[in-house]
Amino acid sequence: MKNVLRYVKKYRIFVVIPFASMIISIALDMFNPYLIGIMIDRVLKKEEFELLGKVLLGIGIITFSRTILGYIREFTFDYLSTRVSIELKRDIFNHIQSLPFSYFDRMNTGELMSRIGEDVDNVWRAVGFGIGLAIENTIYFITAFAILFSMNWKLALVSLITMPFLAILAMRLEKKIGKAYEDISDHVAVLNTTAQENIAGVRLVKAFAREKHEILKFLELNKTNYNLNMKQANVWGKFFPAIEFISNLCVVMVISAGGLFVAGGSMSIGELVSFNGYIWMLIWPMRMIGWLTNLIAQASASAKKIENIMSIVPEIKDSDNPVVPEKIQGNVVFENVSFKYGEEYVLKNINLSAKAGNTIAIMGTTGSGKTSLINLIGRYYDVCEGRVLVDGCDVRDIHLETLRNSISLVSQDVFLFSESIAENVRLGKENATFEEIKEACREACAHEFIEELEDGYDTVIGERGIGLSGGQKQRISIARALIKDASILILDDATSALDMETEYQLLKNLNNRQRKATTFIIAHRISAVKNADEIIFLENGEIVERGTHQELLNLRGRYYEVYCEQFKDFENIQQEVI
Ligand SMILES: Nc1ncnc2c1ncn2[C@@H]1O[C@H](COP(=O)(O)OP(=O)(O)OP(=O)(O)O)[C@@H](O)[C@H]1O
Predict the structure, then answer these.
(1) Is residue 241 part of a domain?
(2) 258 and 360 assigned to the same domain
(3) Which residue windows are transmembrane per the record (predicted)?
(4) Scanning 214, 280, 437, 503, which has its CA 20 to 30 A from the CA of 48?
(5) Tell me: the pLDDT tens digits for 3-62?
(6) Using a 6 Å cutoff on CB, does residue 411 contact ligand 1?
(7) Residue 402 above 70 pLDDT?
C-alpha cells in the first residue's frame, strides 16, 4: 500500500481540500442536534420565539454549506482517485511491456488482466472512498462521543453498551458477505472464461456439433451463479435485521434511560433529543466498520499483488554501457551456444555463422529447438552458455532497442490486431506510406487477395484475423515484417499455410529484394529451404546435419529421409503418368 500511496502524494492538494471539507462538514454537523435541542427547550418550551428565525437560519446555513462542501469533497476525491487509477494502470501496463518472454511463460493472460483491471479498481475505490470514509467515521465517532460524554456521561455509557455487539455483527456480516462475494467473483470469472472460449472457439464447437454440450455446460455454471447469489442474499437476510434491531435497541435504551433523567429533572427534553441526534453518529460508524475494514483489506491485498509485479526487474535489459551501432549489417554468429528453460538443455553447443544477406534454413523434428534457437538472436531469451554475436558484438552488449529494431520476426503463431489490414501492416513501420504498405504486401504475395476484398486495405479484420484464411493471415504478417526492412529477417514456420506456388513466389521475392536481409527460415518443407545458403538439421537441440541442399542429399542422412518422404508421392505420380 505504501507504494500506491506514493501516487497519492503527488496530488497533495487534492487530499488536503477534501479532508478540509470533511472536517468543516463534521464540525457543522455537530451543531445540528444542538440547534434542535435549543428549538425544543427554548423556542417551543420557553416560547422564546425570537430565536426561531436564528435557529432555522443556522440549520439552513449548515445544510447549504454541507451540500457545497460535500460536492467539493466528492469532486476532489473522485479526481484524485481517477488520476491515481490512470497512472497506476499506465505504469503497470508499461512495466508489463518491459517484462521478458520468460515471465509470460509463467503467467496467464487472465491474471495479468486482473492486475490492470480488478486490482487497480480495488485500490482506486479505497483511495477515493474507503480511506476518506474510514477517517470521517472515526472523527464522527470520537467527536460525537466526547459531546455525549460532556452532556451526560452516564447516558453516554448506556449508549456504548450495544456498540460492541453492533461492531461484531457488522464484522461477521462483512466476513460472510465478503466470502460470498469472493465466491461469486471467482465463479463469474469462470463463467466469463467459458463464454469467451465458447465464442472464440465457436467454429470448433459447430464443427464437432457440440452446441448442446456447450449450452448445458453454460447453464450449469449459470445455475451455480444463481445459487451463489442466493447464498449472498441469505446472509443479508440473516444479518441485516439483526443489525437494524441492535441499532434501534441502542436508541430505545438511551431514550428510556434518558426519560428517567428528564423525569428526575437532570436533563431537558431538548437535550435528550440532541442526545438522540448524536447517537446516530456513533451507530453509523459501527455499522460501517466491517464494510470499511474489508474494503481496505481488499485494497491492500490488491496493492500487494500490483507491487509484486512492479517489483520484478526484467532480467533481459541493457548492459551498463550498451553499444549503439549506427547500422546493423546482419552478420550473425552462434558460438558454442547452449540454452535451457528449466533444468534440461533444449539447445546444446550450437555453432552457426550467417553472413549479412545469407539465408540459413533450420529444419528438424517438432520440439527439436528451432524456435528456441532463433529467439536468442533478438534476446527474447538470453543464452545460458556461449554467446550470440551480431556484427561481431555479443547481443547482450548491444542496445536492446537498436538490436530488436534491426530484426523482423514472423512467428509461428500469427497475431493480428482487430484493425484494418493497412494498420496491421503499418505496425512494422509506424510512418509507412500507403505505397510502402502496398509494396510490402506485393512482396508478401498478399496484395492480390487484399485488393479483392470489398474494402481492400481498409478491411477491418476480426480478433486474431478472423475472417481470413490461415495463409492470408501469414502473408499479412510477412508483409508486416518486410515493411520494417530490417537487416535480419526471421521466418518461423511462416509459410506453412501457403500453397507451394505462393511459397515459391514469396521466397523468390525475398531473394530479389534490393537490400537482402540475413534470413533465418524455419520450415518443414524441402521446397522452402532448398535454396538456402546453409541448411541445418536439428535433433534434440543439436545440429546433426548441415550443408547446402545438394550436400545434404549426398549425405543420405535425416534431411535425405525427409526429402524422400516429401517427394515420394510426387515420384509415384510421375511414374504413374509415365
Ligand atoms: N517457454 C518455454 N518454457 C519451457 N519449455 C519450452 C518453452 N518453449 C519451448 N519449450 C520446450 O523446448 C523444447 C524446444 O522447443 P521449440 O519451440 O524450440 O521447438 P521447435 O523445434 O521450434 O518445435 P516446433 O517445430 O514444434 O515449433 C521443447 O521441448 C519445448 O517443449
Answers:
(1) yes
(2) no
(3) 12-31, 51-72, 123-149, 155-173, 239-265, 277-297
(4) 280
(5) 677 777 778 888 888 889 989 998 998 888 888 888 888 888 888 888 888 889 999 999
(6) no
(7) yes
Given a contact cutoff of 8 angstroms between Cβ atoms, the answer to whether 256 and 189 are in contact is: no
Phi, psi of 295 (to 5 degrees): -60, -45
Q: Both 109 and 7 in a single domain?
A: yes
Work out the number of other CB atoms within 10 angstroms of the CB of residue 18: 23
Tell me if 239 is assigned to some domain.
Answer: yes
d(CA 494, CA 476): 11
What SS3 class is residue 486?
Answer: coil
Report the sign of the C-alpha dihedral through residues 297, 299, 303, 305, in that order: positive
Q: Which of 152, 173, 199 is the last residue of a domain?
A: 152
Q: Is residue 303 assigned to a domain? A: no
What ipTM did this prediction achieve?
Answer: 0.96
Q: How far is CA 578 from CA 50, 563, 564, 569, in A?
A: 123, 22, 19, 14
Look at ligand 1, atom 31, and give the residue with the nearest C-alpha.
367
- Can you read off the three cell numbers belonging to residue 500? 507451394
Both 575 and 438 in a single domain? no
> CATH no. for residue 496?
3.40.50.300
> What does the pLDDT look like over 314-369, one tens digit per residue?
888 888 888 898 888 989 999 999 999 888 899 999 999 999 989 999 999 888 99
- Domain contains 312: no
Closest residue by CA, ligand 1 atom 29: 367
CA–CA separation, 298 and 301 (whole Å) = 5
- Which residue segment(s) compose the domain that 524 sits in? 325-406+488-578
Number of domains in the chain: 4
199 and 334 together in one domain? no
Ligand 1 atom with least separation from CA of 347? 14
CA-proximal residue: ligand 1, atom 24 (nearest): 366
Q: Let me know whether 377 and 492 are in one domain.
A: yes
Most informative mutation of 365, 372, 411, 525 for ligand 1 (most atoms within 8 A of CB): 372
Nearest Cα residue to atom 25 of ligand 1: 366
- pLDDT for 463 equals 61
Inter-axis angle of helices 211-264 and 269-310, nearest 10: 150
Please tell me if the CB atom of residue 371 comes closer than 6 angstroms to any atom of ligand 1: yes
- What CATH number has the domain bearing residue 83? 1.20.1560.10
pLDDT bracket for residue 556 (50, 70, 90): confident
Kindly state the cell numbers that stand for 64. 447549504
Atom of ligand 1 nearest to the CA of 101: 1
**With a 6 A CB cut-off, is 541 part of the ligand 1 pocket?**
no
Q: Is 357 in the same domain as 504?
A: yes
Question: Is residue 513 located within the same domain as residue 544?
Answer: yes
Give the chain's mean pLDDT: 85
Ligand 1, pocket-test mutation among 106, 343, 368, most atoms within 8 A of CB: 368
Percent of the residues in the chain that have a pLDDT greater than 90, as a whole number = 24
